DNA sequence: GCAATTTTATAATGATTATTCTATAATTCA
DNA sequence: TGAATTATAGAATAATCATTATAAAATTGC
């Protein structure tokens, strides 16, 4: 019933993710977004509202593809392997991240969460989802004997979540293999049943 | 030999720390700094150079008082207590931080380190200092029998450092006592010698 | 008290910020 | 084909950004 848009909204969303992920929210200007997306200001505002709305759209999609999809993937593995796999995958991603972009959720947790209730709510949800992923794995592993049943499952899950966040911080400054792998080793070793 | 300045440079530095700590570098405007310090633009630029220089001065002082002084304090305790004390102190600080400002070093690690080599160098130094504090404590504790000697001291130190960073991230979003204390418990329990 | 020097206050600077206005182009339904 | 609708391009907007120019004020050594 009207002129069709010339751009692909998904490609624009991906370009927005690249911008906000690399520089953060404040440091990304509309000008940069226009250059990266190839849109004009009018098209971007017409299609996405304002900068804040575009960020939220990009952020939600990052959470879905960068966090939720990964959790669903590792959740299918046996519990001990699911935990190790998710942690090791995070280390690998950090080491392979040539631009040191880190994790967009962790970055936003520091830049935006304290001053933006909506972003904080989204991040809280992510953190709780990661914690409960670990919690389910630990409990299942304690049942099938692959994880030490003497430890508090809840605290272990929280500790694993915390290590994950800490890795993302360290990696933005010192993305060194020995450091990141060394940091995870004692916590992963802690999972081992008492006998072994 | 000339007109004396009317302001106290140390008070200005403290005001700058408050601004940059609360909002970060980019989000803090010169206007805010002038309001918080009570200075005029001419005075601030005359005395401190530009925004970047003022940040560096504030940041260096934060590192000295907020990190180095604390490390020196806990370093005097017996090794196991030094580790536990430093970690628990960090948890307490996070819980008592009504504005959720977090740690200025961790905040800057994400906002500035990837794009500012000088800041990255300062933060790398801090992270290495924390790691070597933990390393000295772990080794001493393994010698005096208060820490499990079967574990890799280097990896334990790295793990403790990582947990510390992770706490600062979590606390900016979910500053809950049970969460932060629960997250540290397994790693601190890990230190216990095999017998106990 | 005067010259020299530095700090102040005020205003102005040019650049960049996010956002919107105007007009034209491209489509669909009738 | 024409009316309605939406997308585009390009320029304009007002606000804010960090920084500096100008000139008056306050001190010291002489």
Describe the structure.
The structure is a homodimer of 196-residue chains. Chain A has 196 residues and is an all-alpha fold. Chain A has a single domain, classed as Orthogonal Bundle (Tetracycline Repressor, domain 2). The first copy, chain A, has 9 helices and no strands. In chain A, helix 5 packs parallel to helix 8 and helix 8 packs antiparallel against helix 9. The longest helix of chain A has 28 residues. The radius of gyration of chain A is 19 Å and the shape is elongated. The relative contact order of chain A is 0.11. The mean pLDDT of chain A is 96. The interface between A and B is large, with 49 and 49 residues. The structure holds a DNA duplex (30 and 30 nucleotides).
Secondary structure topology:
The structure is a homodimer.
Chain A: H1 9-23, H2 30-37, H3 41-48, H4 51-75, H5 79-95, H6 104-111, H7 117-144, H8 153-173, H9 177-190
Chain A binds a DNA duplex (30 and 30 nucleotides) through helix 3.
Summarize the structure.
The structure is a homodimer of 196-residue chains. By secondary structure, chain A is an all-alpha fold. Chain A has helices at 9-23, 30-37, 41-48, 51-75, 79-95, 104-111, 117-144, 153-173, 177-190.
